[in-house]
Specification:
mainly beta; disordered N terminus
């Protein structure tokens, strides 16, 4: 048996033993492409900033070297049909030795739970049961507890490292946003437009206070490094301008102590959607915002870099599809997780350094050609690892497939007229 397949089966059988004896009867063989094969929903950076962890719709977690952008490990969890097994939450332990991931697991035999891995080896390190719900975001606190933002039903759950429930707080709406404050408290944002603060107390957590935001459906929050401000991004935060004909996607920044609005940033360069993905640079000088929507009819997804506190804005197109998450790295750089699928590093003052997945997409029956001897096929291919052109559409390139050798090469198939 080839080594990659034996390692994959070993990982799956390992989870079968850890989770459920009956799981071994439902092992699924998965095709490994070497990269994410679906939208990347979350990206997190290790405390030493050497490693990146991504999770997404292809039901895998992947570990990367932050500097070289090389893939280091593929981490797999039990999967089911449809959405079951898709991952949305990820975190490193404070010392970097372990990884935790979670997502939509209720339809799998594993049930609603979190999955732990050893960072160095990528081996499964156990599971932690959750009361219920789909994991949307995870934080591994500096106090060595794991906080999970849940939807269906909405809740905030905090577990100790051995799985003991330290907080189970039902919420009136799905919870999508979660961040740890420099003072050790947790802030959670839900679809009801409220931020909620929780403080550690006696080994558990206590609900402290709430901030009502100007828009509903909070999808991400970013806390300034000094802890003074919280920026909130919304899934559909569009406000009407005075002329009544155009609208803006809004980012709201509030004072963490008073709850008062400190700044608002409105952007009108996308026709629909919003700038719901946020991150605050580690040096505190910049807020990054991106998300979903078409830019003037084209599938070109911009990133806003907002200087803080001056408010000056720089715009760069960084993706040809939705940007689901942003994470700070270095002094003022960011990592973007996209639906292309893939991730990219955006420097403080330069262009994105792309590390997008190479997914070739057959384009247009009119590009198909078959050689007279039937041994070669010409086709047009659009690659997700390329940024869209000025038209906003993927650039189609000619390819030639040789049936005898089963190889794909550049260049199309010229047939006699």
């Amino acid at each position: 048996m080839p080594a990659p397949i034996s390692l994959l089966l070993g990982c799956l059988i390992g989870w079968a033993v850890l989770v459920s004896p009956g799981l071994a009867a439902r092992l699924d063989l998965r095709l490994e492409l070497g990269n994410h094969a679906g939208a990347v929903r979350r990206v997190v950076v290790s405390a030493d900033q050497r490693l990146l962890l991504t999770v997404g719709d292809d039901k895998t977690a992947r570990l990367w070297d932050a500097d070289s952008r090389q893939a280091l490990a593929v981490l797999r969890v039990p999967v089911g049909d449809g959405l079951d097994g898709q991952l949305y939450g990820a975190a490193f332990s404070p010392d970097g030795s372990k990884i935790v991931v979670g997502g939509t697991m209720t339809g799998t035999l594993a049930g609603s739970r979190l999955f732990l891995f050893e960072t160095g080896s990528g081996r499964p390190a156990g599971t932690l049961a959750l009361p219920a719900g789909e994991v949307k975001r995870l934080v591994w606190t500096r106090g060595n507890q794991i906080a999970a933002c849940l939807a269906a039903p909405g809740a905030l759950v905090v577990l100790s490292a051995d799985g003991a429930v330290r907080l189970r707080q039902p919420l009136d709406a799905p919870c999508f946003a979660l961040a740890e404050h420099p003072d050790g408290s947790l802030w959670a944002g839900a679809a009801d437009g409220r931020l909620r603060r929780y403080v550690p107390e006696g080994g558990g957590w206590r609900a402290d206070r709430e901030i009502a935001l100007e828009q509903p459906d909070v999808r991400s929050i970013a806390i300034s490094p000094d802890g003074v401000h919280i920026a909130a991004g919304f899934f559909d935060a569009r406000i009407r301008l005075p002329n009544g004909q155009t609208s803006e996607s809004q980012v709201q920044v509030v004072d963490a102590a008073t709850g008062q609005t400190a700044r608002r940033f409105g952007f009108s360069d996308i026709e629909f959607g919003s700038y719901f993905a946020l991150a605050w640079s580690r040096d505190g000088t910049m807020i990054a915002a991106s998300g979903r929507g078409n830019q003037r009819g084209f599938r070109r997804f911009p990133l806003k870099r907002v200087a803080w506190p001056s408010g000056e804005v720089r715009t760069d197109v960084i993706s040809g599809d939705t940007v689901f998450d942003l994470a700070p790295i270095g002094a003022a750089d960011f990592i973007a997780a996209t639906a292309e699928p893939g991730w990219a590093r955006i420097s403080a003052s330069g262009p994105a350094q792309s590390a997008l997945t190479q997914v070739n997409d057959l384009r247009g029956a009119e590009s198909l050609r078959v050689s007279p001897d039937g041994l070669s096929i010409g086709l047009g291919v659009a690659s997700s690892a390329r940024m869209p052109g000025p038209s906003g559409r993927p650039e189609v390139e000619p390819r030639r497939f040789d049936l005898a050798t089963r190889t794909l090469s550049a260049g199309g198939l010229d047939l006699p007229g």
